[in-house]
Amino acid sequence: MKITFLGTGTSQGIPVIGCECETCLSDNSQDRRLRTACMVEKDGRRIVIDVGPDFRQQMLSAGGKRIEGVLITHEHNDHVAGLDDVRPFNFKYEMDMPVYGLPRVIKHLEQRYSYIFAKDPYPGVPVVKLIPIEGSEHILLGGMEVIPIHIIHGKLPILGYRIGDFAYLTDVKTIPEKEMKKLDHLDVLVLSALRDKPHHSHLTLDEAKALAAHIGAKKTYFTHFSHWLGPVERFKSRLPANVFPAYDGLVVDC
After folding, report:
1. CATH number of the domain where residue 249 is located
2. pTM score, two decimals?
3. Could you give the CA distance from residue 11 to residue 194 in angstroms, rounded to a whole number?
């Protein structure tokens, strides 16, 4: 299985518009971050986790190959604003695009993209099949078994996902104990690590390090970085030996 980090930045991305901090002015390509998303590929079939406002650019960078469906973590703008850009897959492959998410998220997408789901839609709109994830039932998507992980983003229930020995948890603050059992024996864990200053709905770098150690994956990659964390060359020296900063375009085998 191959994991491609399509984006590893926060809701503003890096550089932040108009910001002149050291991170935003960095000439290191690893400090230039689109909104957080990833692609998982196995046996030539691909699924995407989240479709933020950079989805079009991310798919072009990834080669524009067919994807089998989309897993949504939650309804915030940086995770769903690119849904309209599934249209080329509809047109080229004559397919409806399956999109999975919590029932609350599905309702949000129906309201936000009401033109897609109208009874008599405008010709050429995306063709999307919304599929609610009601509990912890496993999903078969693109030939891959997907296990939903119910996590908490501040006070908001959201989803992470486990696929084989890989788990993807972004925008997480806490994980209920019963969900922790789903994270045993991981080869690769992806975990968000926002910044050093405490945040009400995101893990700090130190909190992410502690959670990664508790989960105990063979390798952990941090994502969803804020520019406040500083340039990657500086903060990566603060990470344990088996923890790495992800960056846009990074490909990891699992």
Report:
1. 3.60.15.10
2. 0.97
3. 11
Residue ranges of the chain whose pLDDT lies below 50: none
Provide CB contacts within 8 A for 184, sequence distance 6+. Answer: none
Determine the distance from the C-alpha atom of residue 5 to the mean position of all C-alpha atoms in its chain, rounded to a whole number: 8
Q: Encode burial over 186-199: b for 16+ CB neighbours within 10 A, e otherwise.
A: bebbbbbbbbeeee
Q: CA-CA distance, 148 to 49, in Å (whole number)?
A: 12
Q: In the chain, pLDDT over 90 holds for what percent of residues? A: 99
Q: What is the pLDDT at residue 14? A: 98
**Which pLDDT score is estimated for 198?**
97
What total number of domains does the chain contain? 1
pLDDT tens figures, 25-66: 999 999 999 999 999 999 999 999 999 999 999 999 999 899
Print the domain residue range for 22. Answer: 2-253
Alpha carbon 222 to its chain's center: 11
Would you say 49 and 71 are in contact if contact means Cβ atoms under 8 Å apart?
Answer: yes
Residue 25 backbone class (left: φ over 0; alpha: ψ -120 to 50; beta: rest): alpha
Burial string for 119-129 (b: 16+ CB within 10 Å, else e) reads eeeeeeebbbe
pLDDT of residue 64: 86
Instruction: Give, in degrees to the nearest 5, the angle at Cα 242 between 72 and 40.
Output: 30
Q: In whole angstroms, give the CA distance from residue 169 to residue 182.
A: 12
Q: How confident is the model at residue 52, as a pLDDT? A: 98
